[in-house]
Automatic annotation (TrEMBL):
InterPro entries with a match to the protein in the record: Aldolase_TIM (IPR013785), DUS-like_FMN-bd (IPR035587), tRNA-dHydroUridine_Synthase_C (IPR024036)
Species, as recorded: Candidatus Falkowbacteria bacterium RIFCSPLOWO2_02_FULL_45_21
Signal peptide per UniProt: none
A Pfam family it matches: Dus
SUPFAM superfamilies: FMN-linked oxidoreductases
Protein name, per record: DUS-like FMN-binding domain-containing protein
PANTHER family recorded: TRNA-DIHYDROURIDINE(47) SYNTHASE [NAD(P)(+)]-LIKE
Domain of life where this protein originates: Bacteria
GO molecular function: RNA binding; tRNA dihydrouridine synthase activity
Domain DUS-like FMN-binding: 3-135
């Protein structure tokens, strides 16, 4: 069964595997790919509930959201605020510029867009962030 990266995720096969697996069963697919942190938590809960799995794996949902693992813990209590996300962005961008200069900031652009996905102003932010040339540009946009 190959779904690739399109369409709705089908978790039925994982549920069918549950009685056949004697050890720990980890489920993967779709967690955090539809939006912000609260959606990721809901995805994780649904995946566990609908499959009977013991735990989850997160793949593409983590792109640009390295905090997703923290947010998706079973007893999640806190979602990253916009301010916390911006702080992470600035730290990452500062390191990228320090390590690779202008090239590092160029490489950061895709991550910047992923970081802001799920925020209410994501579209406007992405339009500006894809044009940044240096750390100060990013800082000005995130004020």
């Amino acid at each position: 069964m190959a779904q690739g990266n399109s369409g709705a995720v089908d978790w039925k096969i994982i549920k069918q595997a549950r009685p056949l697996v004697e050890g720990v069963l980890l489920a993967n697919g779709g967690v955090g790919t539809r939006g912000g942190a609260s959606v990721a938590r809901d995805d994780a809960r649904d995946l566990l509930k609908k499959t009977g799995a013991d735990g989850i794996g997160i793949g593409q949902g983590a792109l640009g959201k390295p905090w997703i693992f923290e947010n998706v813990k079973i007893q999640m209590s806190k979602v990253k605020t916009k301010e916390e996300i911006f702080k992470i962005i600035l730290k990452h961008a500062r390191l990228a510029e320090k390590l690779k200069g202008k090239q590092g900031i160029g490489e950061m652009r895709k991550h910047l867009c992923w970081y802001v996905s799920g925020l209410p102003t994501a579209r406007a932010l992405r339009e500006k962030l894809v044009k940044v040339e240096n750390f100060n540009d990013i800082k000005k946009i995130l004020r």
